[in-house]
Amino acid sequence: MLIKNALVILKDGIEKADVLVKNGRIVQIGEGLTGEEILDLEGNYLAPGFVDIHNHGGYGYDYMDNSVEAFENILRFHSDNGITSAVASTVTAPKATIEKTLSVAREMVKKRGNHAKLLGVHLEGPYLSFQNKGAHASEYLRTPAEDDYRYILENSDIIRQVTISPELEGSVEFTKKLVEKGIVVSLGHDNAILPEFLPVVKAGASNLTHIFCAMSMVVMRDNKRYVGLREYGLIDDNLTAEVIADNHHITPELLKMIYRCKGGDRMCLISDCLRAGGMKADGALYSLGAKGDPDSQQFKVADGVAVLTDGKTYAGSIQPISQMLRNVVFDGGVPLSEAIKTVSSTPARIIKADKDIGSIEVGKCADFCVLNKDLFVEKTIIEGRIIKK
Ligand SMILES: [Zn+2]
């Protein structure tokens, strides 16, 4: 395939160029290239395919429905929105349910079809703080003891990232063990202060799960003011930060502050999208986590965001990161080439997949998202195949 007349969004800027693809990989980038199977972009943007490293569902399905059908539908929701690679997030649930998700995911990573590629799993819980559990079910929350988390280490082939709350007893040891296995440790859903989370950061935690959402903040304790993860996360350059840039969880002003501190290389947009992603806002009730589980939390869609049945607690987002990219550029004022990093090279680097994906460079997978001038997704291309026309 030869992609002609494109405004190619490269890591160091936007250039008018052609891109030659062979066997699913990028082989040449330049002007006046020749080749067969020409795809004329007529001046539209050719962006790297988007990478969503934190999301739960879409098109009515949740990964924790634990079926191939659910995974395929969610991954199709993603590819319809310019995402070429996704990591499946679980919620706090019984170990047996999480293990089932891991085994379906292991099957799906090998599959190629008319949907985004699955890169692995992100475990959001069960090692989260009770005080900042957000929409996670409190009865399944745990503290990290080796007997309890051994199955996570044993599934390190499929687990890319684990979110933990750093003040829980055993977090330092757990973090060291996860990092040893090549699993990324992300901090969040916590109630920690600096002396509690700093040892976990030193032990190798490198990412922050949806900064500002269900995260500790500055508090007074014993007549002393301690920073929380929100403030510390903004100033430590060794930490990357996930951002739910849906203009609800993170408003444009907060977004501007986070961007000013972290920049495009350390800020990563995530959809945190629930099963209601891509569905109509018609008042229907959806379940968080596994369908039919009597303990699972219920939520509905309200004004561009998902809320629990109490009508006020955010349950997660329903916007794909393609919409968030527009929010960040048009409402947050982030330059396009920097904003693109937050949905491609930065998430790819966070989960250590940047050797193959995340930017338009010779040798990398031919994963692209074609955007028009208003930044709407026109086409999704995965390993040289047009998935969405
Ligand atoms: Zn989540």
Question: Summarize this, please?
Answer:
The protein is built from ten helices and 24 strands. The protein has 389 residues and is α/β, with parallel strands linked by helices.
How do the helices and strands line up, and which of them pair or pack?
Layout: E1 2-10, E2 13-22, E3 25-30, E4 38-40, E5 45-48, E6 50-55, E7 57-58, E8 61-62, H1 68-79, E9 83-90, H2 95-108, E10 117-124, H3 146-154, E11 159-164, H4 171-180, E12 184-187, H5 194-202, E13 207-208, E14 219-221, E15 224-226, H6 229-235, E16 240-243, H7 252-262, E17 267-269, E18 285-287, E19 298-302, E20 305-308, E21 314-316, H8 321-331, H9 336-341, H10 345-350, E22 368-371, E23 377-382, E24 385-388
Parallel strand pairs: 1-4, 1-5, 6-9, 9-10, 10-11, 11-12, 12-13, 13-16, 16-17
Antiparallel strand pairs: 1-2, 2-3, 5-22, 7-8, 14-15, 18-19, 19-20, 20-21, 22-23, 23-24
The structure holds zinc ion (ZN).
Zinc ion (ZN) binds at residues 54, 56, 89, 124, 272, 316.
Give a verbal description of the structure.
- The chain is an alpha/beta fold and 389 residues long.
- Helices cover 24% and strands 29% of the residues.
- The chain has one domain (50-354): Metal-dependent hydrolases (TIM Barrel), CATH 3.20.20.
- The strands form five sheets. Strands 1, 2, 3, 4, 5, 22, 23 and 24 form an eight-stranded mixed sheet that branches. Strands 6-9-10-11-12-13-16-17 form an eight-stranded parallel sheet.
- A hairpin with a 2-residue loop joins strand 7 and strand 8.
- The two termini are 15 Å apart.
- The site of zinc ion has 6 residues, from loops.
